[in-house]
Design goal:
This protein folds into two domains: 276 residues, Aldehyde Dehydrogenase, Chain A, domain 1 (3-Layer(aba) Sandwich), CATH 3.40.605.10; 190 residues, Aldehyde Dehydrogenase, Chain A, domain 2 (3-Layer(aba) Sandwich), CATH 3.40.309. Helices cover 39% and strands 19% of the residues. The strands form five sheets. The protein has a seven-stranded mixed sheet with strand order 13-14-15-12-11-16-17, sandwiched between helices. Strands 8-7-6-9-10-18 form a six-stranded mixed sheet, sandwiched between helices. The structure holds adenosine-5'-diphosphate. The site of adenosine-5'-diphosphate has 17 residues, from helix 8 and helix 9.
Amino acid sequence: MQTDALVAIRAGKLFIGGEWRDAESGRTFPTINPSTAEPLTEVAEGDVADVDQAVRAARGAFESGAWPAMDARSRAKLLHAVADGLEARADELARLETMDNGKPLREARMFDIKESIECFRYYAGWADKIYGDVIPLPGPYLNYTRLEPIGVCGAIIPWNYPLQMAAWKVAPALACGNTVVLKPAEQTPLTALELARIASEAGLPAGVLNVVTGHGETAGAALVRHPDVDKIAFTGSTEVGRIIQREAAGNLKRVSLELGGKSPNIVLADADIEAAVRGATSAIFYNTGQACTAGSRLLIDESIRDEFLEKLAKRADGMRPGDPLNPKTRMGPLISQEQLDRVLGYIEKGKSEGAELVIGGDRAEVSNNPGYFLNPTIFDRVTPEMTIAREEIFGPVLAVTTFADLDEAIELGNKTDYGLAAAVWTQDVKKAHRAAHALRAGTVWVNMYHTLDTGSPFGGYKHSGYGRELGKYALDLYTQVKSVWVNLA
Ligand code: ADP
């Protein structure tokens, strides 16, 4: 089936209680293709009433036991069937993601979709291995723990890795026996709807996974405030993360937050320069810089500055954006006009605060396409006080600063409110580990950047959030511990 046909079929529905429904208000809104700036299709504008229906459906599926009481191996089988369904439609899903988000098709297929499939398989494997302990205590007691699901989980996700962010939350939540209401980002709702379709076709019982499309301040906020939602898992901006933490206080929902970043990418003088240049380029320009882990602060030893910058600028020049459906394209557009304006605003700030523009800084012409294309941008001589060194830009804008030695590099690296990721490039094993231990970030890469895997935990220090997704650590986010005492006297 053509993706275009799928777009037409899906138009304007929410997925609640196993059914496709219009929003109660009857309202829809367009989702825009960022590489053409034209609407792709209409999406239902879910709001308070729709969220309420979805939460009721999820609560019903949870309380009836259709999902949590199902034996864990059957649950695993269904999650594998979801992975099979995603795999069977992987090419189509990649195309849909590219049209909705603007990322290069090859990356959507080889990264987003592939990793989403992996994620469902990985947590399918965990489903029947989630269990507690028997604890030896003084006294005539049998004491044991059970890891029980939390209940109805609200998942609110961003637009930069749409299907993957859905998978990171839905797969572990379901593996642990929870039911889910998923609110995709308003900019990129299509693959979440496809996930619901695929899961339903795979045999997931009605109400176990519900998808409500809509805006953050309405549908998202309604989910966060709903008194019958037990947990909110959120990925997005630090600003909205703060609001969510506050708004979730009503019924003391559990909250996990994966927020912004301003990650330092540190290159020591003894690094393999060619590898570090390649790494620094993809660190900032991958996904057009719209990655919470983007290596947006490049810290280089002052002794290699000139050589490094020359090579980096040359490589960045080769990353000029293009049509994301073209297999040769390595960088697509930004997600929206709003984001383009925001990033251009930061570029102006960089200039006015005295940073030196090395390359880019302007919009890119892509074959008369009115999409939101921006050239890869590098600023040199950035000081830690400058706005472009402090704030998350979420675009292809790199801030370069130099340092004199490792201690200064670590100090500069940690000089941020964020703490999502960091990297260090060096051939000295002692320096590598010293840096890895000293950097205050949830992920540290040594001689690499951006690599993630479903098996390894991911999350933030400081204002980058809390809670660890992926790996066995995600099971803590979606279970609660019960201690059972039996009197043997
Ligand atoms: P970004 O800046 O990357 O767009 P946001 O943090 O604004 O990220 O959005 C991430 C997700 O949070 C989206 O699904 C969005 O709809 C949702 N969202 C935005 N504002 C709120 C809010 N006040 N309450 C709940 N969800 C929200």
